[in-house]
Specification:
Strands 3, 4, 17, 18, 19, 20, 21 and 22 form an 8-stranded mixed beta sheet that branches. α2 (about 75-80) packs antiparallel against α10 (about 325-345). The protein has 16 helices and 22 strands. The termini are far apart. With about 625 residues, the chain is α+β, with helices and mostly antiparallel strands. About 25% of the residues lie in helices and about 20% in strands. The protein has helices spanning about 35, 75-80, 160, 165-170, 215, 270, 275-280, 285-295, 305-320, 325-345, 435-445, 445-465, 480-500, 535-540, 540-555, 600; strands at about 45, 50-55, 70, 85, 100-105, 105-110, 115-120, 130, 135-140, 140, 145, 155, 180-185, 195, 205, 240-245, 255-260, 360-365, 380-395, 420-435, 505-515, 515-525.
């Protein structure tokens, strides 16, 4: 990563412009972290400095496009309204420039002289972050920043916080003094962080700065600043600003959208046609399309008119019925994308019928699934080869960890771009599907419906509390089918992490749940060699899967936090689920570890028959 280029400085003794200084690298992160952890708009700490990752505007060249390879996933690109995706620049060894960053927060303090002011006030040399009055003492970036739910970010208003009593007395304007920050050392709490000013105002601590209304009570409003976007004007904002720690996870949460490469898009042909889709759609007949392809690819025999026509027909069939506004259409398209994946996972795709470029291979196991029938499982599918593209669509701030819905999405760029940052994962997985008839019978039980309704009510309340307008809050996705499949995926991942040697963070769930879908795909979630060693596929053989499922259910029947866990009467979106039994690393879960209840798997001591698998526990 490199900070933006500084302005040319004129020489002290002449009017000539000094040569532009070469800026050193400030650090490096893994390529995947530029999507999931340190994406656009996030804060990154490098040694004793703090930066914010800049936007993807082409004019600013934040992301050097010559170092960001293009990747294609036609179905996902159509859903997100872009032409293609780009991988972040590679590691320090192969990247010449890297992703640009900007210094943030701008307020710093000197631990030696205790001065607290914007970094320019210390007059540091170019490329350094030191106090020149204290023999180049390294400066400390502000621990506190201000953010709002619309994604805006700003420095903490230290002056207003310190002089709030003067403002209450009617004083206006700045005092002209110099502020200081010191630590009393009496405790590790905010009470030990003391702010003072040479104007003589009473010293105050940072205690109370994190109250939800602390800044609003001071008359501080959100200025609508977007420091990750160069030259971005301040946006009008009505959201209340809140104080956050610079390293808090609430500062930045990615909005990720993903898709699997499935036939007929998974053999590489769609990539060759990139940039030509609009022209192909405009041609009205097969003959015209064939003539166009002959002119565009005169020496490429691998592009057949039949395959191209199949892609065009598949694209047209994938468009859902457009209902509602733009947001509703986007949601419908994304649901249609999941449904297509579910249908392909159920149908399978034999490698013998495909070439070496095929990115999706899904086959049934050799042995029969009869051993799984008592568990209510259909025939599993072994996904021996898959490719997933995860795109960073936007990001949110001050996200509620117990909300599966996304808040206000902050943009990655000031102007519209035809690409988004993304990463691709190539690995393997196992697709498990439940018997829908048995599932419907179970979901119709009064006790099951009442338990899930309590979760849904709690989740709906949380969504309304978080929404700017409660009327616009999305409904909770909690249903008996969804909660059961979600919890089942978690207990299987935890069990495979013990038996197959995979860490839980290396596995990921993908849920297919609605009125016509009842399946889960568990697959490798890393982009390294751990994703293609065959260990996950081996777990999908019926005999082994039955053993693993039996062990997973036995472990789910007891938690080290019981009886508190299983008898929970929580007002949250989980019931019988905690970090000791059902929760996973956040990267492995699609729903932020909410809407989980292992009682729907194995029952409770008071109602053993509540669980879908209650008859498989040998009680």
């Amino acid at each position: 990563m490199t900070p933006p280029r500084e302005r040319r400085r004129r020489g002290a003794d002449s009017g000539s412009a000094a040569p532009r200084l070469a800026l050193p690298r400030r650090g490096s992160v893994r390529r995947s972290q530029m999507i999931t952890t340190y994406g656009v708009g996030s804060l990154i700490a490098v040694d004793n400095e703090s930066f914010i990752v800049s936007g993807i505007d082409d004019a600013y060249r934040t992301w050097p496009l010559d170092e960001a390879p293009i990747i294609y996933e036609h179905r996902l690109a159509r859903v997100l309204g872009v032409r293609h995706f780009r991988l972040p620049p590679a590691s320090e060894d192969t990247s010449k420039d890297g992703v640009r960053v900007r210094r943030f927060p701008l307020w710093h303090s000197c631990p030696k002289c205790q001065s607290l002011q914007p970094v320019r006030g210390f007059n540091p040399p170019p490329g350094k972050n030191v106090c020149t009055d204290c023999d180049d003492e390294p400066l400390v970036p502000s621990r506190f920043v201000v953010a709002c739910e619309d994604g805006h970010l700003d420095d903490f208003p230290y002056w207003k916080w310190l002089h709030r009593r003067n403002r209450e007395d009617g004083a206006t304007g700045h005092c002209g003094g110099e502020m200081r920050m010191r630590f009393s050392g009496q405790s590790a709490s905010l009470r030990s962080i003391l702010i003072s000013c040479t104007c003589g105002v009473s010293e105050v601590s940072m205690e109370g700065a994190f109250r939800r209304s602390a800044l609003t009570d001071l008359g501080v409003r959100c200025e609508g600043r977007r420091p990750w976007l160069k030259d971005a004007p301040a946006a009008f904002c009505t959201e209340a600003p809140r104080t956050l720690q610079r390293g808090s996870s609430a500062i930045w949460q990615p909005v990720l959208k993903s898709a699997l490469s499935i036939p007929p898009w998974s053999d590489g042909l769609a990539d060759k046609l990139a940039g030509r889709w609009e022209r192909l759609r405009s041609l009205s007949s097969r003959e015209k399309i064939e003539i166009y392809l002959m002119g565009a690819f005169p020496d490429d025999d691998s592009i057949s008119i039949d395959a191209v026509m199949a892609l065009l027909e598949a694209e047209q069939a994938e468009d859902p019925v457009e209902e509602g506004g733009e947001d509703a259409n986007a949601a419908n398209r994304y649901r249609a994308l999941r449904r297509q994946e579910y249908e392909r996972l159920c149908a399978g795709n034999d490698l013998r019928d495909k070439g070496r470029d095929e990115q999706f291979v899904c086959e049934p196991p050799v042995t029969g699934p009869a051993v799984l029938a008592p568990f209510g499982l259909e025939r599993p599918m072994l996904v021996k080869r898959l490719r997933e593209v995860r795109a960073l669509k936007a990001f949110t701030r001050i996200a509620d960890p117990e909300s599966s819905s996304e808040g206000h999405e902050a943009s990655l760029s000031l102007t519209q771009t035809d690409w988004l940052p993304a990463m691709e994962v190539r690995g393997e997985g196992v697709f498990v599907r439940l018997d829908e008839n048995r599932l419907d019978d179970w979901a119709g039980q009064v006790a099951v419906a009442a338990r899930v309704e309590r979760m849904r009510t709690n989740h709906d309340r949380m969504l309304r509390e978080r929404a700017t307008d409660p009327a616009d809050a999305p409904p909770s996705p909690a249903t008996p089918r969804m909660v059961l499949l979600h919890t089942l995926a978690h207990v299987l991942i935890n069990q495979w992490s013990l038996e197959a040697g995979y860490p839980a963070a290396a596995l990921r769930e993908r849920l297919y749940t609605d009125a016509d879908m009842a399946g889960i795909l568990i697959y490798t979630a890393t982009s390294d060699s751990a994703g293609s060693l065959g260990g996950v596929v081996a777990q999908g053989e019926p005999e082994r899967l039955a053993q693993v499922l039996r062990s997973a259910l036995r472990r789910a029947g007891w938690c080290s936090a019981d009886p508190l866990c299983v008898e929970a009467r929580s007002a949250g979106a989980n019931l019988a689920a905690c970090h000791a039994c059902a929760m996973l690393p956040e990267t492995s879960c699609e729903h932020n570890n909410i809407l989980l209840d292992r009682a729907l798997l194995v029952g409770t001591p008071h109602d053993p028959h509540l669980g879908f698998f209650a008859n498989n526990l040998g009680r």
